[in-house]
Specification:
mainly alpha; Diphtheria Toxin Repressor, domain 2; 2 domains; 8 helices
Length: 162
C-alpha cells in the first residue's frame, strides 16, 4: 500500500538520463566499450549507433538504447564511464608531469629534477636518466635533438607507468 507513484514528468526525466548515458556509450571507442559489462543486445545497439546514419535514425537508435538501459541496472555502466573519465584525467596529468620533467632536464643544472624523478619513480636508473638528459642538451642538429627528446620522453613515460 505504500507504493510511491512516479509522475509522468519524472519518468521522462529518468528516460532522458538513461538516453544520455547511452549517448556517452556511443561516444566511446570499441576498445573502451569492451571491458564494460552490458547485455549483448545493448552492446549491439551501441555499435549500430556508432555507424553513420541520418539524424532521425540516430535519434530513434538513441531512444532504443535508452529503452534497453531501462531494462537493466545502469549503475555498473555509470561506474565504468566514470572510471574511463578518471583514467583520461590521470593520463593527461601524467603527460603534463613528464613534459615538465623533460623541460627541467633541458637546463644545465638538472640535478634537482633528476632527484625529483628518482623519488617519484624508484625504479628509474640515475645513470641512464643523466645520460639521456646530457644527450638531449648536447644534440646540435635539430633532427638529433628531436630524437634525443623523444628517447628521454619514452624513458620517462616507461618509468612513470611502472
Amino acid at each position: 500500500m505504500d507504493e510511491i507513484k512516479v509522475s509522468k514528468t519524472q519518468k521522462k526525466h529518468e528516460f532522458k538520463a538513461l538516453q544520455n548515458l547511452g549517448e556517452q556509450l556511443v561516444s566511446l571507442s570499441p576498445a573502451q566499450l569492451q571491458p564494460i559489462d552490458m547485455p549483448e543486445e545493448l552492446l549491439s545497439a551501441v555499435l549500430d549507433a556508432q555507424k553513420p546514419m541520418k539524424h532521425e535514425a540516430k535519434r530513434r537508435q538513441l531512444q532504443y538504447i535508452g529503452r534497453l538501459m531501462g531494462e537493466i541496472d545502469p549503475e555498473p555502466i555509470r561506474n565504468a564511464l566514470e572510471n574511463i573519465r578518471h583514467g583520461d584525467y590521470h593520463k593527461a596529468f601524467l603527460f603534463k608531469k613528464i613534459e615538465a620533467w623533460r623541460s627541467g632536464l633541458k637546463a644545465d643544472d638538472s640535478a634537482p629534477v633528476i632527484d625529483e624523478i628518482l623519488s617519484a619513480c624508484p625504479l628509474a636508473d640515475r645513470q641512464r636518466l643523466t645520460r639521456l638528459a646530457r644527450n638531449m642538451r648536447a644534440a646540435a642538429k635539430p633532427d638529433k635533438a628531436i630524437h634525443a627528446e623523444n628517447l628521454l620522453f619514452r624513458y620517462l613515460k616507461e618509468i612513470s607507468a611502472l
